[in-house]
Amino acid sequence: MKKVIIASTSTLHGSSYLEYLLPSLKLHFKDCKNLLFIPYARPGGISHDEYTAKASEAFAKINISVKGIHEFENPETAIKNAEGIFTGGGNTFLLVSQLYKNNMMQLLSETVKNGTPYLGTSAGSNICGLSMQTTNDMPIVYPPSFQTLGLISFNLNPHYLDPEEKSTHMGETREERIKEFHAFNTIPVLGLREGSWLEVKGEKITLKGNLSARLFLKNQLPTELAPESDLGNLK
Amino acid sequence: MKKVIIASTSTLHGSSYLEYLLPSLKLHFKDCKNLLFIPYARPGGISHDEYTAKASEAFAKINISVKGIHEFENPETAIKNAEGIFTGGGNTFLLVSQLYKNNMMQLLSETVKNGTPYLGTSAGSNICGLSMQTTNDMPIVYPPSFQTLGLISFNLNPHYLDPEEKSTHMGETREERIKEFHAFNTIPVLGLREGSWLEVKGEKITLKGNLSARLFLKNQLPTELAPESDLGNLK
């Protein structure tokens, strides 16, 4: 059975890395002693080793050890043998490029669909949708495709931001950008605010956290979904 | 001689379309009675005809008539014969895709480099740089390349936004995104605030408007450039 947690952000303002998710992660990864970490989204600043250490530190609190995929001689085998997988945030264009370059996109998708528990945060969540086309990130590298894992039948906009009422800035709001996406695409888009996550168990998809999420469908006005909403039929 | 105006935004909050630029545009296009308008960036909302009408209305105030490139049977000839060219804003991924699809990227670049006066706003400014990789837009379509017109030897970030000091949002700031770009690219990036524009005359590039602009170079701290700064040597 597919078991996926798709989080808007790794970190809430004022709390530590993954802190707010740890109670859920303890249940989600209850059969795992070791996690495979995919640090590919990180565009510098810290190394893959340092990023992996950061994930290790958080998961140590729930007695799970973490090893970065870059530490394995054969990353494909690492994915196939993983007890659980976590893809961290960063830049989605970079993450998607790296997954294609290392020939992992399809393998990762199949592995998670076959039941290996998965956690994505931010860019690691973006790739759970059908395409990365509703990312907020800057196109710092050119990926061979915008198609992603397709673990769910819609797209995500992590770190969703409501428009600021008093703004005098003329750049597009997040809502306007998603509307632009729907001028050329029919895929539903879920705006996940920081503090929200999706829990996927087989075909069941539940909105978690205390906040509502904003659902965008082509040619329809956006709607707000309450926590615990079931998104299993959204496609 | 190359004659280009590259504006952060078409519209300032509280004023009408192109209003703040009209005195400069009157000089810039002083030898033009007719302008060719490229509306390709517009991702729906209004049609190419309606977008062209909006540009026409603004340019009528300085006695220049405007015709959309979509109205021409042969768009290549339209570019070659244009007295002046204006590319409006919208979505840069869409604009770049359309320019490649219609086989216009190289022709437009050559035409402007050969002296046809050009105005870009927002997405129409983004394409003046070496690549569109510092756009703020959402990747709603997949372009065949991120390379753009290369009218100047650096990249632009239009609608540049300073970080909000009191923000609790965990998404990347504009400055952080540009730093990510520099993890993989050496091209300088100029953050152009709304109300700023570049005036390119041959090899001379001058920052115009009342605001400073923020310059990002790989592995260096960002700096502020005062109005009237000369960017001709930036590469």
UniProtKB/TrEMBL annotation, chains A, B:
Kindly give the Pfam families that the UniProt entry links to this protein.
Peptidase_S51
**Origin organism of this chain?**
Flavobacterium limi
Instruction: Give UniProt keywords alphabetically.
Output: Hydrolase, Protease, Serine protease
Keyword ATP-binding listed? The answer is no
Q: Which family does it belong to?
A: Belongs to the peptidase S51 family.
Q: Which residues cross the membrane?
A: none
This one is known as Dipeptidase E
